[in-house]
Amino acid sequence: MISENAAHWIWLTQALGYNNHKLFKLYELYDDISEFIKGGEREWKYCGILNMQDITKLKQTDDVITKLILERCEFFDYSVITIDDSSYPDKLRHIYAPPAVLYLEGQISALDMPLTVGVVGTRTASSYGTTNSYKFGYALSKSGVATVSGGALGVDCACHRGSLAANGVTICVRGCGINHPYLVENTKMRQAITRQGAVISEYPPDEAPKPYHFPARNRIIAGLCDGLLVIEAGEKSGSLITVNLALEMGKEIFALLGNNSPRNKGSNERIKEGTAIPVTDFMDILAVFNNSFPAEEEVSFDAINFADMEGIPVKHRRKDKASEKTTGIGKPQKKKTAETKVEKPKKAKPVHKENPDLTEVQKKVYDYISDVPSNIDVIASDLHIPVFKVLSIITQLEMKGLITALNGRNYILSSEE
Question: Which domains does the chain have, with CATH numbers?
């Protein structure tokens, strides 16, 4: 299925960017986006939404790429759902900067399940993390609950595979195009998801992954779910961006109880501060939703079969260099000589980008942050902005790739790639 106005919205995303709140404002203002397109430069100037920089981008954007994208979608039989389409998920219309276009392979009905639980966590998951993620995916699916995750290694794919084993509905939200081969380890899993669930993205089918795509992708995961479960999230985990977004949206947050490993620091902190409900079993989640979705058959969390657990890929940590030297693990180290020693180029200091598309208060926070770490509490105090509002702004700046999170809720400017 390809929406009637697909070409218009694709062209707008190519000109103004995918994660742009102005696209939603255009949707609210025009009953039919073709009126805006046909109005030309005069309409663009007087609609009250775009600045001159935006209008210049529109004038410079050819529709050739739009036609190529539509041809690719037709060739692969992908659905293109636009924000003004009746099949667009209503949950997403209420988030900040909802995607104007969704590219989908699989079942559109997967986006309209009565109850959806998101599952996020580390790519470098332990066996405890992958086992529990698989079990939650399986048990929730058996209870008629759809799951949503990001299709990454570790926790994400364990959840998807658990849902697939239960013949349930699961949604994979990608940080690249749905046709891009990124993470070949999960290719077969994504193919299996399309039979009952859906693989979706706001990026055109062949779009390559970029670092800032993933924080932006997380707002879609948060938007689609009614509740969000975080499993093994460290202090700097990208999963916590999804948690912050879900909190802003008023979603229920759950966290798997873990030990005091650094891998669990972020999720455990959410439990301690009271923003996440601690869980050890899928019934802990269903209870919050008044057990509205009882399983068709009795599901024992401890009796779930892990037939394909061995095949769940995780992202491997780098080996400790000290242990390599003492145990002999890994390749022998070459002795550095004057001839082989190479000076590493010094990284340029990160600087503020010129004319970023920000609101006045977002720009105020962005201008405050520098190449020296700034703590969120200090930012709030110095700028006289409530902490909860700073947290929201910080999340938006991360999604735009303008700042980078450090330990202890500190932030610095992002370096140029």
Answer: 6-88 (no CATH), 106-311 (3.40.50.450), 360-413 (1.10.10.10)
